[in-house]
Write a structure and sequence with these properties.
The chain contains two helices and nine strands.
Length: 154
């Protein structure tokens, strides 16, 4: 005997295009490309302002990441990224705290690579849902702070 079901449902991850915005007068942004890595989907952007540059990665996570809290995912991303930076020879020189557009604290880590004339500011923070921002900024502190303070996904 065959069962006739009235409906079947399950969860599915659907990639959805959203607008991102931030307030940084004089800056330009260029989309670098969309990538998939396991259950992480990310779009990358290059931001230029004056003589500086920043690279912004916008992540969306799927299963099995979706079962973890945003804080746990953020901690994992921060930990592995900091470890990768140190493995590539970068030296952490300090950190400071910024706030995202909703007022939540975001730690910004400063890194220096021997022989380079600049520091790299690294910040990773959760956005709405299972979206995250990762920023590598070779910009002045004020410009880095403005991106973090005003970045929104709409």
């Amino acid at each position: 005997m065959m069962c006739v079901c009235s409906g079947v449902e399950t969860k599915a991850y659907v990639i959805q295009e959203k607008n991102i915005s931030f307030d940084l007068p004089g800056a330009t942004i260029k989309r670098q490309g969309f990538n998939v890595s396991g259950a992480m989907f990310y779009d990358s952007f290059e931001i230029t302002k004056d003589n500086g540059v920043a690279y912004l990665y916008m992540y969306t996570v799927g299963s099995p990441w979706s079962y973890m809290s945003s804080e746990a995912i953020t901690d994992f991303l921060v930990g592995t990224t900091r470890e990768n930076m140190e493995n590539e020879g970068y030296i952490e020189t300090g950190n400071w705290t910024s706030q995202d557009h909703s007022g939540k604290s975001v730690t910004v880590y400063n890194y220096y690579l021997k022989g380079q004339l600049f520091e790299v500011n690294l910040a990773i923070w959760p956005l709405e849902g299972k979206r995250f921002a990762e920023l590598y900024a070779i910009l002045d502190r004020d410009s880095t702070n403005k991106i973090i303070n005003t970045l929104k996904v709409e």
